[in-house]
Amino acid sequence: MIAETPPAPRKIIHVDMDAFYASVEQRDDPSLRGRPVVVAWRGARSVVCAASYEARRYGVRSAMPALRAERLCPDAVFVPPDFVRYKAVSRQVREIMLAHTDLVEPLSLDEAYLDVTAPKSRLASATAVAEAIRARIREETSLTASAGVAPNKFLAKIASDWNKPDGLFVVRPHQVEAFLTPLPVGRIPGVGKVMQGKLEALGIATVGDLRALALEELQGRFGSFGAALYRRARGIDERPVEPDQPVQSVSAEDTFAQDLPLDALEPAIRQLAEKTWQASRKTGRVARTVVLKLKTAQFRILTRSLTPDTPPDSAQALAGIALALRDRVNLPASTRYRLVGVGLSGFRDPDEAAPQADLFDAALR
């Protein structure tokens, strides 16, 4: 019996633009270079979209309340975000990646996975491809990117953060165990502060500690996520790079200048439904599920969803369903809300979205 040859390891690159939004602003306005730049609208409810490395030295981070960022870095220059410009640069970067492989999986405007196991550019190695991409990004956009090269997506993403900014780090197949063993368990995607606390209570501080636990024990304690922890501790990640993933959801949300009662949210819900509807039309697909998101003044997040028999066919229909979902919120009338969002999910291609009853009726005609 002839033994099967195991497949060669994949070659995955994770490319991550450095402080992307803030770097675009500094590139386009020379007066901002070398200064702490915070990309955010000013206001009590605004949050930070991005921070330059100069601002990060003061502890400013993305998703932080803008007021806190201002307290941490009083000299910061606040710049309102310009997503039209950011998307244009993102398209430039995407074209550079596609010159090397068709297997590009965007994660956001500023990062993507690439499978370069068989690159179009025929460069000698994945490392050479990563270096070529970074060099061309610098040349054509005057921006820097960091990259991680590894046998899978999980490791490549960790590696891309290793030498930031403007860095490259490579994890070769024979280096995986040595690379992972000393890492804090918090470096594993999905291990937030709560999970990290649970693991530390078990005496697990590093990935090496985690590797000592049996699959059965991790599954018994953490269910399916325990199985994921078991695989990650061993550097196992079989997820393929998936280019051009179809849209799964679209949404729009708004944070109010002051907290509002539930019955005052209708104008905002109708406006957000219009924005969400217009965004959904660009996908060419049909959404089955309507989602309403609310955040109370105490930062409690609530979601209500409905999958109607017939998908909404207009912004007005979407708004009507979202308002009906609002009426399903049973908190006290005194509750105030700081944010509302309207979303669509469960997208299907048009020929998959037709109700089965309609298809059955058509067959009978």
From TrEMBL:
Native organism: Pseudoxanthomonas kaohsiungensis
Keywords: Cytoplasm, DNA damage, DNA repair, DNA replication, DNA-binding, DNA-directed DNA polymerase, Magnesium, Metal-binding, Mutator protein, Nucleotidyltransferase, Transferase
UmuC domain boundaries: 12-192
Subcellular location as annotated: Cytoplasm
Site residues by UniProt (Substrate discrimination): Y21
Protein name per its UniProtKB record: DNA polymerase IV
Gene Ontology molecular function: DNA-directed DNA polymerase activity
Underlying gene: dinB
Protein EC: 2.7.7.7
Subunit annotation: Monomer.
Location (main, coarse): cytoplasm
InterPro entries in UniProt: DNA/RNA_pol_sf, DNA_pol_Y-fam_lit_finger_sf, DNA_pol_Y-fam_little_finger, DNA_polymerase-Y, DNApol_IV, IMS_HHH_1, Rev_trsase/Diguanyl_cyclase, UmuC
Lineage of source species: Bacteria, Pseudomonadati, Pseudomonadota, Gammaproteobacteria, Lysobacterales
Role summary: Poorly processive, error-prone DNA polymerase involved in untargeted mutagenesis. Copies undamaged DNA at stalled replication forks, which arise in vivo from mismatched or misaligned primer ends. These misaligned primers can be extended by PolIV. Exhibits no 3'-5' exonuclease (proofreading) activity. May be involved in translesional synthesis, in conjunction with the beta clamp from PolIII.
Active site (record annotation): E111
Names of required cofactors: Mg(2+)
Cofactor remark from the record: Binds 2 magnesium ions per subunit.
Record's keyword annotation contains Metal-binding: yes
Catalytic activity: DNA(n) + a 2'-deoxyribonucleoside 5'-triphosphate = DNA(n+1) + diphosphate
